[in-house]
Each structure stands twice: as C-alpha cells, then as structure tokens.
Amino acid sequence: MAFDTSVSGILAASADLGIIGNNIANASTSGYKASRGEFTDIYAASLLGAGASVGQGVQLSSVTTDFSQGNVSFTTNSLDLALNGPGFFRLSDGGEAVYTRAGAFQLDKTGAITNSGGASLQGYPLDLEGNIAGELGDLVISTALIDPKATASSEVTANLDSRAVKPTAIWGDFDDNNERVPFDAFADPPTGPDSDMFNSSTSMTVYDGLGNPHVLSVYFAKTDGENTWNAYSLIDGVETGDPKVLQFEKDGLLDGDPLTPNLFKIEIEDWAPIGLDGTPLGVDAQSFTIDLSSFTQFGKDFAVSYVNQDGYTSGQLRGVDIDQTGVLFARYTNGQSRQLGQIALASFTNQQGLSPSGDTTFVETFASGQPSITTPGLGGTGLLTSGALEGSNVELTSQLVRMIVAQRNFQANAQMIQTEDAVTQTVINLR
User: Fold this and answer.
1) Across-strand partners of 309?
2) What's the whole-number mean pLDDT along residues 79-105?
3) Which candidate, 366, 325, 330, places its Cα nearest to that of 349?
4) Rounded to two decimals, what is the model's pTM?
C-alpha cells in the first residue's frame, strides 16, 4: 500500500511540475493565463465507516486558470487589442466559436480580422449612423474603393470689407450688340473675369457623380446700393447663372430672415459637368447650393474663415482605427472615414469552466455556461486599447518557488519508496 501511495505522490508532483513548466514556457505569450493544479487526497473508508483507515495517496483533481489581468504593452499595429477588464474576444475557428484574451490580430487576404491561427474576430456590422445593422459574424474590412459622392451642398463663411468701393469695371463680357455674354473659359477666345470687375473672391473643389473634381469660384462685387454686394459663381471657368444679391444691415449682418428658404444661398441648377477640354463628361446634371448665410460686412479685410462641401471622390483604404468601445473606423485616401463594425465580447457565469483548446483560446463547456455576447463596456465587460497587447499574467518568481516545492515533494515521495523498499527487504530477510 505504501508503494501505491508514494507513486501517487510522485505522479501528483510530476503533474504539478508539468503545469508549472507550461506556465514558465508561456511567460511571454500574449494573453496567456497561468494555470494551477488542484489536488485531493485518496481515502477509502469501510462500508460501514467503522474502524481506522489510512489514506491511499493523492490525485490531480483539476487544473484551474488564473484569469487576472496581465500587463499591457504598446505596439505599432492598430489591430493589436488589449482588453482592460473582464471578457473575452469571440473568434470563429472553422465555424467553431472559441474565446481568447490574446488580441494580436491582422488582416488576411480577404480583409477578415484574424489571429495567428487563422481564427476570425467576430462582431456586428454598423450602418453609416453607427447603429448595429446585422447579426453577429466575422468582421471583414473591405479593401475595395468606396463610391464617390456628388456635391449636394456647400457652405462659405467670410467677411466682406465694408470699406470697399464699387469695382471700376462692369461685370461681364459683351458681344457686338453690347449684350452681356456669360464668362466661358472654353469659348473661342476664352473669357473670364478681370481683377477690376470684383473686390474679392474665393474658391473650393466640388465633385460630380463620378467623383471628378471641379473648381467652384465665387466673386464678390460691391454695388451702387448701400451695403449691397453681388455674388457671381463660376465652375471650371464657366458662369453658372445670375448673381446672388447680398444685402447687409447697418450692423454688418445680412438683412432678412435666415429661415427663409435659399434667401442667402446661390442656387446652381442642372449643372452639366465638363472635362478639362470643355466637353461633357457624360455625367448626370446635378444641382446644389452655396450657403452664404454666415457672411458679415465689417470694416476688416476680406477673409474666409470656413469652407465646406459634402461631396468627395472615390477612395482607397488607408488605415483602420479602433476606439475603446470596439468600433472600427476605416480611413480612406479621399479624407473620408466610415464605421465598419463593432467588436463583440463574451462573458461567462463561470469562466473557470472554460476548457483550454490551444493557441491561447478556450471553448465553452457545460460547466462554463453559455456566453453572454455584448460590446465593450457593456454587460460588465472591459474596454479596449488599440495598438496594445495584454501580456501573460505568469509571475515568474512565484512559479519558481512552486517549482522548488514540487521538486521537494517529488524527492520526498521517491525517498518514501526507497524507505518502504528497505523495510520490505528487511521483512523478507527475516529467518
């Protein structure tokens, strides 16, 4: 019996050394969680529970996992994610759901966000307003060009110099009958405004339905009327229509109810985009407005403080940013950004019931219960840090101390076998 008891002790010490060795081996593994062996005694009682009984050794009862937070280190990869607080990343590994704290991710050739083992990070798709727009699934970042958007509205904020006087030349180009002809940079010969026809000007880039850029210029000319200006607009050097009259009050602000539709807006109707040679581009005609409602007329030099328009050309993916709530923002070469999806996190009622499955992942079991799936910061889950990794929570000093203790236990049980062997030999040698 003593032999069996000591052998169980050796096996238990060997198992403990194996667990400790695995911890030490993974001391630098991102997201690794240290394990600990739990041991119980072996005790055989009589059927009726009477009489003295000697224990029969020890056995490995379970291997528990320490899910405490590891240290966070920063990297240069924006797809590296450190989870600060409870929860697990949910991955799809060949269709099987696995869970991990290791946040070293990268894009594969299809645009899916995967770990080193090829398992795909899961989350929710988002619409343009940032609302969840679909079911839980693999997060995929499309590398395709995003569609262009034609300019639908634009806005300029500026101050017109109240000290300005009416330009010396009349705005426009005139034919032989002394009738004004709109400026046209593609006419033969080309025509355009002279500097003595206006007091100030500004320009911006607008886009047609195919994403082609066009230069929109607005010229401002003081009139004979008190505090009155004409605003003329040209696109690619071609005049777009009649001027917009801007009437200012004596306090330097525009005169009129700003709620009146298009009162302070230049309306461009049925504009047909043209190419660099002046020929049509085959794009649908479009209409848009230029909002001048924030203009002022003070005794200061002309100055533009704000220019904006809502169109853009097509763009390629430039990079991906992830905020602390797991929202993925794709940045494009055209200056646009889009919310593509939101990372999902899982939590368990009994995380100790999770079963390790290799590659720093776990799978759910009956003991762990089913996962609760949510987004970072909700349901008791932590928040994310992009460009960072959670390190192993293995504390080497304590592991080395445990190793020494396990080694002594191994030696003691081996010595017990030697002692029992000596006693047995003595009994055998009795005459």
Assistant:
1) 154
2) 94
3) 366
4) 0.76
